[in-house]
Amino acid sequence: MNKLICALTLCSAGSAIANELPSIENLQHDYELQEYVDLLKHEIRENHANYQLYVESLGKNGEIVPLAPAPKITYLEIRGVYSALYRKWDYVDQNAFSTNQDHGGQFYALTLEYGYAQPSSRRFQINGTTLKLETSEPVKDSGNTVIGWINYWKNPMTDFTSGNATYNGTSINFPYNQESDRLFIR
């Protein structure tokens, strides 16, 4: 009987530990994640329409226009999930409708943003619950101007099994357009 109680205690302690995530700071030091984020930054630099417009606005002599407005938000996406159930980054393709792996418990979501969204307008929700923005990493061009963002969101719910995630943002400047993305997290 004592062995059974001890085994049950260990099992319940093990499941509590399985739901806890490492800190986002620890995960950001993962070499594979750093390579992926570098690819996302390259994607923003090379493909972002506002960045191309910014490069064209440098002028004939290559002079930077110091008071040019921040680029409006033109695109945002959910591009990765790390969960208590699947303890690796599940990188999501650009046009995917769902994650590649099954997730559960607490999770982090990685999003990218082309341009600037009003900070108060950024919303990541799962099944209607708004998640907390853990940290943001700016994406800079060769002139050290911020042209986009890599964001990390945390879902603290340990009972999460699956659901519809939405990510929304409104441009910081005219025309104040709204962009959004959806992903089913399995």
Gross geometry: globular
Which range does the strand content fall in? 25-35%
Q: Provide the CATH topology.
A: Immunoglobulin-like
Span between termini: 39 Å
Instruction: Spell the H/E element sequence.
Output: HHHHEEEEEEEEE
Radius of gyration: 20 Å
Low-confidence stretches: 1-17
How many helices? The count is 4
Name of the top-level CATH class: Mainly Beta
Q: What's the CATH architecture name?
A: Sandwich
What can you tell me about this protein's structure?
Keywords: Signal. InterPro entries: DUF4879. It holds the Pfam family DUF4879. Residues 1-18 form the signal peptide. The protein has 186 residues and is an alpha+beta fold. It is 26% helix and 32% strand. It has 4 helices and 9 strands, in the order H-H-H-H-E-E-E-E-E-E-E-E-E. The protein has a 5-stranded antiparallel sheet. A hairpin with a 7-residue loop joins strand 8 and strand 9. The chain is globular, with a radius of gyration of 20 Å.
